[in-house]
Every structure is written in structure tokens, then in C-alpha cells.
Known about the structure:
Helix content is about 75%, strand content about 0%. It is mainly alpha-helical. The protein has one domain (about 25-120). It starts with a helix and ends with a helix.
Amino acid sequence: MEESAYIDGANDLQIFTRIMLPLSAPALASVSLFYAVNHWNSYFNAMMYISDRRWEVVQIMLRRIIFLTQSISSETGVDWGMLGEPPEKSIRLATTVFAVIPILCVYPFIQKYFTQGIMVGSVKG
Length: 125
């Protein structure tokens, strides 16, 4: 395809923007989604460098909620009455769902690139 574009008179920039970039869109979308998920889930850098609570990321707040729940449930001197201990596992699962929601909102827009990448590799001709 690249050689035929050269024969048709296309320069390097046209070949890159009209041939190479559209063909590599599924791979770029996959790598960018993995990078975004990794960046979204990273909390260690934020924990190390941010000291003001106003600027903390969501993962730090969710981590604090989980640790607070674990410390409350581990105290033995507290009488929880009819309700019992706080639902530690339920809170952990709720915070996980809360952290996944933004990625789930982005994924449907990128899903078409995944299917295009699979179809490009499977079509022969």
C-alpha cells in the first residue's frame, strides 16, 4: 500500500496520515486504553506527593474508606447492636464498582477499534 501510494504521487506525510495512521488505529486505541486504566488505578504517586486532602484522587479516598471500615470492624470494644459489624466486604466491593465506573463509561467508545483490529487480522484477500 505504501509503494502504491508513492507511485500515485503521495508524499511521506500523506502516506502516514491516510494509510498508516488509520491502519494502526486499533493498536493505538488498545494501548491508550491500557495506559488510561493503569493511570486511573495508580494511587501510589498521588499518595506520595499530594499532602492536601482537597487535591487527593478518588483511589486515595476509596482506600481511606476501606481502611477506616477495617479498623472500625476490628475494634472489639464497640457494641454494634442489632445491626452487627459494618459490612467490610460490601464496602470493599462498592468502592471497586465506584472506581470502575469511569472506565466503563469510556470503553463503549473505544470498543469499535478493538473489533476492527480483530477483523483486520482475520480477513484475507
